[in-house]
Amino acid sequence: MGTLCFGMEYLMRQTIISWIHELKLKHGFADPKKIAQKEKLRVWTIEDGCNNWDARLVKKDCSYLILVNRVKPRVRRNYAIAHELIHWLIKRHMPDSLPQGDQLERLCDVGAHELLFGEESL
To answer: 3: which residues sit within 8 A by CB, 6+ positions away?
Structure first.
């Protein structure tokens, strides 16, 4: 999918925010690692001394896992898990219409922010 027009990106943001609200209601908490685990998404912490990445969503066999760089501070790792959780939600719910590049990253940041800092998280 190419560049999203403003209206479509806005609708996708609202959709992602609604997914986050559903996950918070379903699980009763806003901890991204716990939500990922409850959703059967494995989270592995590894130590990478290069320190040039926070987390990555990786396909392994028929499922996905989130690799988290242990070298990063805890707060940054937590945000990175939330960000990668949104990548997974987008792949799961919108496999045929994935946004790309900067737009995808912005949408994942919106979802991570909503999960960690949204009204219900306070």
So the answer is: 103
